[in-house]
Amino acid sequence: MHPRLALASRYAASQNPDALRVVVVSDAPLVRAGLLALLGGFGDLDLGEADSSRSQGIDADVLLSHDIQPDEIAPSLVLVTDAAAAADALFGGARGVLARDASPRRIHAALHAVAESEVVVDDGFANALLPHPRSNVAMIEPLTPRERQVLQFLAAGLTNKEIARSLGVTDHTIKFHVNGILGKLGASNRTEAVVEAARRGIVSV
Length: 205
Prior knowledge:
Layout lengths: L19 E6 L3 H11 L5 E6 L11 E5 L9 E5 L2 H9 L4 E4 L4 H12 L4 E2 L1 H7 L15 H11 L4 H8 L3 H15 L4 H10 L6
Parallel strand pairs: 1-2, 1-3, 3-4, 4-5, 5-6
Helix pairs in contact: 2-4, 5-7, 5-8, 6-7, 7-8
């Protein structure tokens, strides 16, 4: 039987039927309370909390943890102190790692990206986690102005939905541009694309 998860009383469930179910996991109650407070202003999140001993069986879209890699099927975003801890979290199965001092907006965007099966790596850890860049070969085809614009949004950590909303286009259009960017940069995911683009001087992170 799955353990019951008690929602913090001051964080009501979102009225948005498409809200992302996020559970904050930490053994420190004050840390959980702080993270809940940081994210409490986002109306598209249903927030809950648990300690590591109750992390199994939680019904959530994403787990947000604090240097803890929960033993759980749900994808997790881990807030870490340095690149070594980020590497440990990723090797342990985390889908994303951000610095502990990441802004609420960045954490919010990363939660949605992880929920959409993206891998998120904080810019500050990218060089340490990806130490072997490709040789600086020319791209087969240059990025279009729109692809460069979308790439800037990717570097800022926005999700496809957020980019689509900013540009006034559909999610499908953004997915089309992202696929074009990945192909031209020889990247397998958004994080690799941003790192490669930064190495080439196309974007600054």
